[in-house]
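Help! Submission page says 'invalid entity' but I think these are all valid:
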Amino acid sequence: MSRTYVLRRGLQAIGTLLVIVTILFFLFRLGLPDPTVALVTEGLSPEDRAVIRERFGLDRPLFEQYVIYLGNIVRGEFGTSFYYKAPVAGVVWEKFANTMVLMLVAIVIAYLLGIPLGAYLAWKRGTRTDTVGIVLGLMFRSAPMFWTGMLAVLLFGVALGWLPTSGMRTLPYEAATFFHKVFTLDFLRHLIMPATIIALFYLGSPLLIMRNTMLEVYGEDFIEMARAKGLRERDVLYRHAARNALLPVITQLAVTIGLAAGGQVVVEVVFSWPGLGREILQAVRTSDFPLAQATFMLMAVLVITMNFLADLLYGALDPRVKLQ
Amino acid sequence: MRPRQRSRSRYLAQAFAPLRLIFHDRLATTGVVILGTVIVMALAAPWVATHDPRAIVERAEGSWMTWDEDAWRVQPAIGLEPLYDLAVRGGEAIAVGADGLAKRFDGRAWTALPRITEATLRAVAAGDTGAIAVGDGGVVAWYVDDEPRALRLGDADLHGVTLVDDGRSALIVGAGEAVWHLPLAALEAGETDLEPRTTRLASPVGRGLLLRAVATDADGSAIAVGERGLALTWSPDAAPGGAGSLALLTLPSFRDFNGLHVDPDGGRALIVGERGTLLRREGPDARWVEDPPPDTRALRGAWIGNDGRAWAVGRNGVALSFDGEAWQRDVTGTERHFWAVAEVAGRPLAIGSDPFVDKLAPPSAVHWFGTDHLGRDLFSQNVYGSRIALLVGFLGAALVVLIGANVGLFAGYFRGRTDTILMRIVDVMYGIPFEPFAMILVLLFDPSLLIVILAISLLSWRTVARLIRSQVLSLSERPFVKAARVAGASDLRILYLHIAPNVLPLVFLELAIILGASIIAEATLSFLGLGPPQSISWGGILHNARLSGAWRTAWWWNIPPGAFIMITVLAVFFISRALEVIANPRLRGR
């Protein structure tokens, strides 16, 4: 992998981001109602409206707003949320952390379970175990998460009363920092249900990819070689085949993490998780341009970065792949 | 002609190759069967559905509930006719209802009495010799063991009946302030028309108001109540054999009175009426007092016991009880309308119900998946929901594949600048997170079916384009493409007649994958309340369930739509898995 390749792909990623930011900026300005209409209560006089529009810079020409906006992004300023009346960065950062802690836990569980299970299914290929495993994996993938989430709330939250059904912590609570909020038993109890629901949904992907690549690897000569050396089937499976089959799973993991911030809006809705997904839904509904833009940009940045990383990983891990 | 024919048959063989793959795979065959069933269900929705999915279903039935230990329990309905009144005699009760329905209750089970009239019976009183019921159109039904018979008293509707003169006469009240004094001997006379043998008493009010109920007091007199706070007392004549006389009774309320009960031993009495009206009398000579109601809906049936405990029932499943000090509302968990309540064999029993909205009803023989918070049939909603899912799924997938395949074909065939531009666009698309973008797009425009389909397909074609492009890149180096070019075929001809058939199996695979994704995406948008308005979809049903708040208890509302989504998408996954062999022939050996 040459340095020029990395550089070129890096520039491309930045170009992609610029295009997305531009599309979003104009999409929001042209598609959404004026925030002074959407956000402020009725009965605002035209004079007051003009004052507010001036304060937020909404009275300037669209193109001028765009240039100011780009300049601010480069300086790392994302403006003030119309709704929270607070700097966007702070709001988004908190919600981002909330979403990521949920999504990362879920993804890690899914991959830790999915990879060995996929390898196991490949080993048992063609048997009843294999079929049951595939059907289960596909079932979790085809069941919408808002549905499984609702059923989980119904069963474990309401009927059995084992787990809390909404939010990140039992209210009221006080936490000085994000870590104070997260490193508690109460948080763990709130995390179990949503994380499990997301993990089950994501489980199918590593499971099936792992199984399929294992089958491909099984056809390779070095596996025959390992068998010929008289290794146990288990050792052939986990030491030789699995390691080589991991490659597509790892790149898939990178892509999945990239998509995590855009996350699972429905899960956040069902479990009232104060995350980024619910935030963007509300920001768009209230025409909160700065918040919606920053949120979406953060999601896009993560997607683009992780896609980029997946590409690099692919080249770095598999010497057969030549990137140019 | 011949080479052309051959090429066409090869074209067909290529196109149908996926079908062979599907039917060689057991899971894929299952998938085809399931998906086919769902498609048939969507097409035949009006015939499959048992109800109009949008209609609020009303239902009448012979409802009854009993007080067990500490709560009302609704019992399985007895028949389809609503029950209107209840009379107690010893440990037995007699209930009458619509279309001449009459039933006897022995404390445990109901037995039918002969149906001797088609008219609706509104009230019943039970005496030593038999039970007398009155109803619409002046019908009087006389239930005696040997020969029950239906007779007639005028043609106005009769609403109340009670026995006076130590059980020798009946006092009947009804529309037009009618109060009739009927000696029971007249019932045995053998004539159908009772009017000549009955005395109509003159009302002291004379405004033609409707009298709804009448009850015998402890001292042998009687009280009749009706609309607009009308209350009359009937007193027997000093000499036996007379019809008695009426006097006005002033009560502390002017609301419509619906029901009345007097305890014959202690003389306690209770009147119930509209807007939670509760009038109580502690003894035969005590004053009537108005109790503050715990619920302000219409009350229709009243019962008060010797110990001062009382019950009142009414519309929409309202049931109140009085413990001697205060009224409280009891949970019945039903929307049924109750008409009467009484203590039978020491246990309170309430009856109803004229047509009521069957809200949040659990699954039953009529509503297979129960009903929602507005009383709409959920099975029918689920059946109709398959239409939106499949429509959006198939249209979305077709659009995605159409765009994606063409972009892939052009980029892969023309290469150079075309390829660069198209692939940079695809790169940008890959940088956009799908779900938030689709949500924003639907929010930006007025929600409609078209915008939902567009939101789903606008990004999804990126994968198809990349996949087809890489395939076309290698295909266009093949000898048959070069041969076609040498033969002078145009670019478009080569693209669509020579290359396209070869990527067709791949297109089918993508079609299947995108179909599953589209169905889930549509359900997701609908669940978030962003679906096409005024349409019924599986995601929308779950959205309603969440919005109504009833989803935390109504399991029958939550389970079916998601199960339908899961089964449909699973079927599509089964099919696409079999097709994956096309894209990756190394999987063939599995």
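Support: the input was valid. A stray whitespace character was the problem, and the output above is from the cleaned input. The first helix of chain B runs from residue 2 to 24.
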